């Protein structure tokens, strides 16, 4: 009986030891967002509004890359839609898809109805050197689709008069990966 109790006690102690492998590493502030790159690496990032820069960190809190986000005059940064290392372009540079917005105050005065498009979005794609690869006015949504080994980038473009009229989906073929 003592042998059984000793065996059960040791088994219980070993099982607690194996489950206590969690080790606290630190805290990431809630304004940071997490991404997983195509190669499986997990990073987190934050947008510095004053410097107009996205700062990407490794999981050990070391800075990986800082990328300046060009924002046109009278535009405001809205959000990062996607960060890609080789989905949009098959090189090792980071590409960032982000949106900006501007307010069309003349449209509000001319037509104060709520469905009128007084906020104008622009979807932008840049590489890590800040080169603009694409800019689509009146757009702020994207989707990647894959079929038969080919990937397409769909950009949803809103009509100029309102969100309800003249909507389009722009289709872009993405280059094949290396």
The Rg value, from CA coordinates, equals: 24 Å
* Uncertain regions spanning at least 5 consecutive residues: none
Total beta strand runs:
11
Overall 3D shape? elongated
SSE class: mainly beta
Strand content: 35-45%
Fraction of residues in helices? Answer: 10-25%
SSE pattern: HEEEEEEHEEEEE
Spatial strand sequence of the major β-sheet = 1-2-3-4
Largest sheet: 4 strands, antiparallel
Work out the helix count.
Answer: 2
Give the terminus-to-terminus CA distance: 65 Å
Average residue pLDDT = 83
Describe this structure in words.
With 178 residues, the protein is mainly beta. The chain contains two helices and eleven strands. The chain has helices at residues 2-19, 105-110; strands at 33-36, 42-48, 53-57, 63-68, 76-84, 95-103, 119-127, 132-137, 139-147, 150-157, 168-173. It has a four-stranded antiparallel beta sheet, with no helix packed on it. A four-stranded antiparallel beta sheet has the order 5-6-7-8, with no helix packed on it. Strands 9-10-11 form a three-stranded antiparallel beta sheet, with no helix packed on it. A hairpin with a 4-residue loop joins strand 7 and strand 8 (132-137). The radius of gyration is 24 Å and the shape is elongated. The termini are far apart. The mean pLDDT is 83.
